[in-house]
Amino acid sequence: MCGIVGVIGRGPVNQLLYDSLLLLQHRGQDAAGIATSQGNQFNMYKAHGLVRDVFRTRNMRSLPGTSGVGQVRYPTAGSSASEEEAQPFYVNAPFGIMFAHNGNLTNWRELRESLYRVDRRHINTNSDSEVLLNVLAHELQSSANGVSLDDDAIFRAVSAVHKRVRGAYAVVAQISGYGLLAFRDPNGIRPLCIGRMETDEGVEWMVASESVALEGSGFVFVRDVEPGEAVFVDLDGRFVSRQCADNPQLVPCIFEYVYFARPDSLIDGVSVYDARLRMGEYLADKVARNMRLGDIDVVMPIPDSSRPAAMQLAARLNLDYREGLIKNRYVGRTFIMPGQAVRRKSVRQKLNAIGMEFKGKNVLLVDDSIVRGTTSREIVDMARAAGANKVYFASAAPPVRFPNVYGIDMPTQSELIATGRSDEEIARAIGADSLIYQDLSDMQQSVRDLNPKMQRFEASCFDGEYVTGDITAEYLARLGQSRAEPGQDEGASGLQFNMGYAANDA
C-alpha cells in the first residue's frame, strides 16, 4: 500500500508535492520521493523515512519545475530494503518517464522475464513497480512507432498495459515533454482521484490516491479515475481521458474503508468516515444478538481508525463511550512494521491505558480488524493490568484468514491469527473473555449502503476469492517463501538525481 500524487502546475510544484505527501503519509512510512520536471531535465530526491525527515531545504531547492510526481512507500512482502526500490522510478527510453505506483502486480515475474527476453529491457531491482514502468515504456514506444506521442498513442499504450498486466495498480507518470499520465487497473482495486484548481496563471491539475490530498492542498475534488481509465494532462493543462480496458468493473479493496484510508477521504463515491460509522451500526446489531448488554459497562475504541465504528456502536446500544487508550502519534503503525517482536514492543510504546477508565469495569474494546493478533493480545493484557474486570473484544471486520496479494503486507496464512482457529479459540489466543467479529456481508453492505453501484469488493483476505483469477496455491506458497528471504541492508542516505534528456516533440 502506497500513496501517490502527480501535479501539472502553473508555478513551482515542489512544495505542493511535499504537502500532498504529508497528507498521504498514513499510506506508507518506509520511504518518500519526489520528482519534478523543468525544461529538459528531471530532478528527483528519494530516501527512507517519513516525508518530514526525508526532505530538507537543500533537497527542496534541488526540485524545481512546474510538474512532477511523488510517492510515500509501504513495502510489500519480498521487497528489498534498498533505496533503489524507493519511488519514483525513472526510465530514459524511448521517452523520459518518472513513475510512481500504488498496488502490487501478481504476474510481475513473468513480465520481467518477457521484458528481458522479448522487449530487451533490463530490470535492475526486484520491484514490480519497475517492471510496470518498463512495460509502459515499451508499449509507448510501440504505440508511437518510435517517433512522437499523441493522445491516441498514449491511450493505446495503456490499453496494451492492461492486456499484459495482472494485479492492482494505480499509476502516475510524468512523460518528458508531454505531461502527466495517470491510470487505474481494470478492477479499480486501488483508489485514484482527480482534482482541479483555478489560478490566475491557468488551471492546475492533481491526481492522488485519496481526495484528502487534493482538498488539503487547495484543489477541488472532480471525480475518481474509473477502473481501466487513463487520464492525460499535457503541459499546457489540457485534460483528456479515455476508457482503456475491455471489460472494466469496479471491485475496490474493502480494506481501504476498514483501515487504510483516512476517514476524511471520499473513495469511489463513498465517505470513508460514513462507511466506518455504518460498520459500527451493523457490528452493534451483532453484539446485541450475541451478548447481554447489561454485562458491558463501557465501549472503548482502539485508536484511531476504529473510533467511528466504536462511537456508533455505543450510541446504537445506548452504552457509555470512553477514550481509555491514548495513542502516541510518533510511533509508526504496527501493522506495517516487520517482525512480531518489533510490533509487540511498539504496541506498548504507541498506546497507554488510563487506569480510571478500566478499573473494575467490563470493557468492550472495538478495533477495525484483527490481523496477526499481536496488537490485540497486548491491548487486552494492558486493559487487565489497568484493572478491567472483564475484557470483551469486537472487530469491525471479519476474521482475516487468507493472504492478500494486491498490496497489503499479510502474505502468509501462518502469520494470521484466524488461520485454523474458531472465534472462541481466537478469543483465548488474545486473552479476551469474548470476541465478536463483523459478518462479511454486513461489512460489504456498510459500503454498499452509501454507493449501491458497488456490487463486488476485493475482500480476498476475508473470503479467499481473488478478483484477478490468477492466484493459485503455488503462487501463494512462492509468495510465502519470498517473505522469508532476508532483505538487503538499508542504505544510509537518499538518492539525488538530475537527469538531462532531449525534449520530445509534442
UniProtKB/TrEMBL annotation:
Keywords: Glutamine amidotransferase, Glycosyltransferase, Magnesium, Metal-binding, Purine biosynthesis, Transferase. Binds 1 Mg(2+) ion per subunit. GO terms for molecular function: amidophosphoribosyltransferase activity; magnesium ion binding. Residues 2-236 form the Glutamine amidotransferase type-2 domain. The active site is at 2 (nucleophile). PROSITE patterns: GATASE_TYPE_2 (PS51278). Its cofactor is Mg(2+). Mg(2+) binds at residues 305, 367-368. It comes from the Bacteria. Pathway: Purine metabolism; IMP biosynthesis via de novo pathway; N(1)-(5-phospho-D-ribosyl)glycinamide from 5-phospho-alpha-D-ribose 1-diphosphate: step 1/2. It is an enzyme of class 2 (transferase). One of its GO terms (biological process) is 'de novo' IMP biosynthetic process. InterPro entries: GATase_2_dom, Ntn_hydrolases_N, PRTase-like, PRTase_dom, PurF, PurF_N. It catalyses: 5-phospho-beta-D-ribosylamine + L-glutamate + diphosphate = 5-phospho-alpha-D-ribose 1-diphosphate + L-glutamine + H2O. Its EC number is 2.4.2.14. In the C-terminal section; belongs to the purine/pyrimidine phosphoribosyltransferase family. PANTHER family: AMIDOPHOSPHORIBOSYLTRANSFERASE (PTHR11907). Catalyzes the formation of phosphoribosylamine from phosphoribosylpyrophosphate (PRPP) and glutamine. This is Amidophosphoribosyltransferase. It comes from Achromobacter piechaudii ATCC 43553. The gene is purF.
